Amino acid sequence: MRAESPGPQHEWLDGDAGPVVRPYTLTGGRVRPSVGLDLVAFVLARRGADPVAHPRLHPEHRRLVELARRPVPVAELAVELDLAVGVVRVLVGDLLARGLVSVYEPAGTAFLPDDNILKAVVNGLRAL
């Protein structure tokens, strides 16, 4: 018995669809990073970080280390790799666990204006 001739596979995809399952394979099905990472947290490769010494890393991990040779925010890494931010957070968490990168969270808001100041601003705007 002969099988059908090979025809176009995945007719439900077009050329612009891109990878469908790949982000989940990159993270091993994980959807949460090992550490919480803010979108504006800066990632910096540690001095002497060599991703080649870690054979289980994906090419995307290696690319992240290369991009992080200078401080770069998590959101920008997602844009550079054309991956979802959630995926990049998981990958950065992997690199952090292996000691290949450092993460610098933005300083918290140390000063929040007093409610009286905000009310004065609103009243001043209304007076205009």
Rg, Cα atoms, Å: 22 Å
Low-confidence stretches: 1-5
Task: Please list the strands of the largest sheet in the order they lie side by side.
Answer: 2-1-3
Helix content: 25-40%
Number of H/I helices: 5
Protein name: DUF742 domain-containing protein
InterPro entries: DUF742
Organism: Micromonospora carbonacea
Pfam family, one: DUF742
Account of the protein in words:
By secondary structure, this protein is mainly α. The chain has one domain (22-127). The chain has helices at residues 22-26, 59-67, 74-81, 85-97, 115-127; strands at 42-45, 72-73, 101-104. A three-stranded antiparallel β-sheet has the order 2-1-3. Helix 2 packs across helix 4 (85-97) and helix 3 crosses helix 4 (85-97). The radius of gyration is 22 Å and the shape is elongated. Mean pLDDT is 80; it is low at 1-5. It comes from Micromonospora carbonacea. This is DUF742 domain-containing protein. InterPro entries: DUF742.
Short description:
Helix content is 38%, strand content 8%.
